[in-house]
Amino acid sequence: MNKVNNNHQNHMMKGALVLSVAAFITKVLSALYKVPFQNLTGDEGFYVYQQIYPLYGIAVALSLNGLPLFISKLVAEETETSKQQLIIKQIGLWLMIISFTLFVFFWLGASWIAEKMGDEELLPVIRSVSYIYLFIPFLSSIRGFFQGNLDMIPTGISQVGEQIARILVLLGAAYTYTITDWTVYQMGSIALSSSWIAGIVGSVILFWYVFHRAEKKDTSKVFDKQNFFEIGRRLMAEGLPLTAMSSMMVLFQLLDSFTIYNGLIESGISEQMAMSLKGIYDRGQPFVQLGLVVGLGISTSALPLLRKYSRENKKEEWEKISFTVLNLTFLFSGAASVGLIAIMPWLNHALFSDEAGTGVLRIYVISILLASMISSTLSILQSKTNRMLPLIALLIGLMVKASINQFAVKHLGIMGSSYLTIFSLFIVLLLMNSQMPKKIWIKFLEDRKIFKILITLIIMGGITYLTLKGLELIFPLMGRAVSLVLTFIGTFFGGIIFIKGLMLFDLLSEQEWQYIPFKEKFSRFRNE
Question: How many helical (H) and strand (E) elements, i.e. helices and strands, does the chain have?
Fold first, then answer.
């Protein structure tokens, strides 16, 4: 029996590793392509793309994260293949209804959405991205079926395949824009068509796995009225919170699309300048996407162990691993945020050719720490099957952002939106932690741990910044190449200081050190 359980657990861990690697590759690619895209299309082209990107991001959250996870849970509850296939048919009907409704809304409502965004020329761009919603039933159902049977490879391969196809179309559109007389809106329409082209690629890959791994032909009935409505109820109660939380940052970006441009226009600046400023603000997206990889990786990997201790009612072990998750997230996401703040002038210049918006971006990247802490807190709460609190907290945070953001931008410019994003995320984090055991947070006060963490981060950021400012005196006429070199120097130097701080203040336990890459090399320094 133990051997069976061990094999099951090993298979589950291998599957989790496949998904983690695929998610890492996808997020890195998603962050990196935006740099050449902005370089080719400029801030105005980047504005057009980023205004509509959240509509694509929501579709990704539905087809890749929230819905497949929910469907896999339904599938895993059944052991018979025929019953699993019936569930897929029932959930597929729900998803077809929902997805087609969303497609019709975005297609027919494109004019209204563009008007509310303050730029009616975005209409064809919105319609271009709307087609991706037609692929959600296939992408999410098949991924959920395989994941429910602990087969993560189809999801991982299709995820990476989609992203590669999308990037090729995006950069192709951006390059064509530079050699033709396309407008930024024509370019944006072609660029956003990459969403449904990627949907075709992902569907083809998944159907290939269905045909090559299909079991006996299913003869089960298609419709079971009682089961159909029960699945619909669970979809709303369980699937919706999962999807909403997995698309948290995309939802904040969506609010930015409706409020920043309008707020800038209300402040009295020209439409062209408003487009450029919104494009500059959106430079922060790739930084945040990359920064979130570490925090999301920690929280995702810890969730199975948290659920295990919760089911077994091992309170002490559950609290210990919960603190470990929060401690690691705070340390490494905090280091990502502070490090980016320190090197931002040089990084911004190296990647985007100038330092425009550096102050705004410095504030915005604090969201890496807050969003990562929210993700880790979510994993801890989910292990106790607490579903509604995170959703309520997120809705309140979004309401705060939606109600004030345009006013903040009108009076403070794009800096106002950065401030409000941080403030709203902080509210979400506070509300979610209202049901966190106080004992976990008290551990941060033991031996003045929280102060040691903050001192480490401040010293790391301060020394890194001053070092680069000193090197800047040696290279006063900086080009992008020099800025890039200084960025790498700052990253390496800051990383060394951070690791030294971890050792000096003993911020990680022996168990927590096991999560660190290249821990064998670090152990030599620790023992010296």
Answer: 25, 0
